[in-house]
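queue> holo job accepted (nicotinamide-adenine-dinucleotide)
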Amino acid sequence: MPVFDHPEFDHHQRIVFGSDEASGLRAIIAIHDTTRGPALGGLRIFPYASDAEALTDVLRLSRGMSYKSALADLPLGGGKAVIIADPRRHKTPELLRAMGRLVDSLGGAYITAEDSGSGEDDMRLIAEATEHVGGLPRHGQASGDPSPFTAWGVYCALRSAVRHRLGRDDLTGLRVAVQGVGHVGAHLARHLHAAGARLVLTDVDTAALAHLAEELGAETVAPGAIVDAEVDVFAPCALGAALSAEVVERLQATVVCGAANNQLATPEMAQRLQARGILYTPDYVANAGGVIEIAWQRRDDYSREAVMAHIEGIGATLGEIFARAEREGQSPAIVADDLARERFRPAG
Ligand code: NAD
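queue> job finished
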């Protein structure tokens, strides 16, 4: 299994393989970059088919966290951890405590948090063995659900994109298609509704869709029809890779801004959107509200107002990215990556 020649290897500072015979733990922690601070990133528990698959995931995800934290202006680097296990069958307290010891052995260079397959209860078990756990609320409501913060960030991002592309601050009558009305999508839809936007919603969960549509008086369409909706903004808030070549060709919107991770099915989609005159909002910039809140939980001066104000900064960061993208004739996706690298790997 090559590591230094792996396609996803990007000068990661440390990659640690850990195991514990008694609990059956098999885990990898990747620390991509700690220039800005300790590497924060969630713990994914997933029954990977092979060690190679787990390594690919942890290398890619840890690198992504360096970019996200840098553009969210956090004093944090990028890292990620994976446990090769089925979270429904193999997640035992012993396994999580062993994971805590592995995290602890890195002396704070890596801070863990929730990700798919791990939740707040798991973080409490990990915290029995290490203090380097970021996903446990110390302040405010211990809801453990970052989605209201993520949604507020996406809303601020969307306002910034609409200001740049459509030249308007008032969202009254703005038409927005929201793909996926789960945790983040539903909160986003409510913010948009309160600002006077006209919504077209979809979800494969027809009951949740009908419920929200009634609450907001919104139109609904079948999942396959959302990309054809006659709207100004398309907000992908369901799964990754929503922006395929076919979708990009069909989109009626001139702005894309949503919560989903890894929206571009391939990196070339950034250029295709650009060629069609559609402003793409880099996903990891727009959806950083949750990680911003986790970072604030580590501070003693936490306040909800300060968290929300920091999240609102996403709008200004995107304003900078959109302006530079326009000057350089580049996609905002490329400019965001460049700007992030300038922040965590400054020249010299
Ligand atoms: P969620 O599971 O609560 O919501 C996703 C919704 O999408 C569900 O209601 C699901 O039924 C729906 N869906 C699935 N496939 C669909 C399809 N083909 N068409 C339409 N709808 C479909 O997840 P979430 O927490 O709201 O997160 C949404 C996205 O945002 C994910 O990509 C997630 O990785 C990303 N994200 C979330 C957060 C957060 O704070 N929750 C933070 C950063 C990024």
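queue> DSSP finds twelve helices and twelve strands in the chain.
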